[in-house]
Specification:
Layout: H1 43-59, H2 71-81, E1 102-106, E2 109-113, E3 133-134, E4 142-148, E5 160-166, E6 172-177, E7 183-184, E8 190-191, H3 194-197, E9 214-218, E10 228-233, E11 236-241, H4 243-252, E12 272-275, E13 281-289, E14 293-298, E15 309-315, E16 324-326, E17 334-339, E18 343-351
Parallel strand pairs: 2-3
Antiparallel strand pairs: 1-2, 4-5, 5-6, 6-7, 7-8, 9-10, 10-11, 12-13, 13-18, 14-17, 15-18, 16-17
Length: 353
């Protein structure tokens, strides 16, 4: 389409324009019976129609072409889509993409397509939008969602939807939404779903069991502390000490401490210290003497006061059948015995620790 090419044409400065006065109306071929004159078609009317079409073509940044009578259609398509090389698709047409510049309406919100800044694309930096616009980022932070490798065979975790986050300092982080229903980080690590973890935990108790769902690490700053893993649920708790603390505890208590007698004071086998009801302590131990006379007997564990009872359980004689008797002078740490010869004796001593 182009301007009129014919004898008698003029440039725009000399073209006829609409009269300043008169009543606008519609053209007619006239009716002699009704004495209606035929409309005289003036040059300005043709110029007006031509200008309407011409300005659309030029406004779409197309160059008028006298051999192309589809330029008005192309111009309207380009203006509507916001691209100088795209057209609205007709029903049944397909295209890889449709380019737009401005805003698209989705539901009750307007969504920015393209963006502010150079090249009509979303830029890093501050966005400019008016009220009522749904923003995908704010300040100097933005995210974009696109699709990568839609024909991927599943061997590359980056196949699928790409969500790219750009922080205010320009740092970019990519997250990939794959067809397997999982999200992957830039290193290919999979983000687990709740359904993947729940089989290992239970929110309800089974028959005769208690659900333990709260796992905590306690006093974990040093191996010297009473550090342990605690699992709690409902009114129950389970604490498991760490290996470091167990090792330390065994080392600390390898030798008796406090009121316990040194290890050298214990007799060989047959020595037992048993806690009784009422806070009493029963000491069952064996003493061997190699001569007659008075002997000092040291309790395996010192008491808080003198024993309440000292009983000879039985004599483990070495063949001399030497008699044994318990003397007075009981103390918190021991007592005395009298023997007529070498012998071994089993004592039962009770008292308060």
């Amino acid at each position: 389409m182009d301007l009129l090419i014919a004898p008698g044409t003029v440039d725009a400065s000399k073209a006829d324009t609409a009269p300043e006065t008169g009543t606008p109306g519609w053209a007619t071929d006239g009716d002699p019976v009704k004495q209606i004159a035929r409309t005289v078609f003036p040059a300005y009317a043709y110029n007006a129609l031509l200008a309407e079409i011409y300005n659309v073509i030029v406004g779409a940044k197309l160059t008028p072409d006298r051999t192309d009578n589809t330029q008005l259609f192309k111009a309207i398509s380009q203006i509507a889509t916001g691209s100088e090389s795209a057209y609205f698709l007709k029903s049944g047409d397909t295209a890889a993409w449709v380019t737009s510049n401005g805003w698209m309406v989705a539901g009750n919100s307007r969504v920015m397509s393209g963006g502010s800044g150079a090249d009509g694309a979303i830029q890093t930096g501050d966005y400019v939008w008016s009220d009522g616009i749904t923003a995908y980022g704010y300040g100097k932070m933005a995210v974009s969602l696109s699709v990568t490798d839609v024909n991927g065979k599943g061997g590359d975790y980056r196949s699928g939807g790409l969500l790219q986050f750009t922080a205010y300092d320009g740092t970019q982080t990519n997250f990939y939404f794959r067809g397997d229903g999982y999200i992957y980080d830039p290193s290919g690590n999979k983000f687990l779903k709740a359904a993947d973890v729940l089989p290992y935990f239970s929110a309800a108790s089974g028959s005769g069991n208690t659900s333990l769902t709260n796992i905590q690490g306690c006093n974990w700053d040093s191996a010297a502390n009473n550090s342990y893993v605690q699992v709690t649920g409902g009114n129950v708790s389970l604490a498991v000490p760490t290996l470091a603390y167990l090792s330390k505890s065994l080392t600390d208590y390898a030798q008796p401490k406090g009121n316990y007698q040194p290890a050298g004071n214990y007799q060989p086998s047959g020595n037992y210290i048993i806690g009784l009801s009422g806070g009493k302590l029963l000491q069952d131990f064996v003493v061997a003497v190699d001569s007659s006379g008075v002997h000092d007997i040291t309790l395996p564990q010192a008491l808080s006061s003198a024993p309440t009872s000292v009983v000879i359980s039985h004599g483990l004689t070495n063949g001399s059948n030497a008699s044994v008797s318990v003397l007075g002078g009981w103390t918190a740490t021991g007592f005395q015995i009298q023997t007529n010869g070498a012998t071994s004796v089993n004592f039962l001593v009770s008292g308060t620790p």
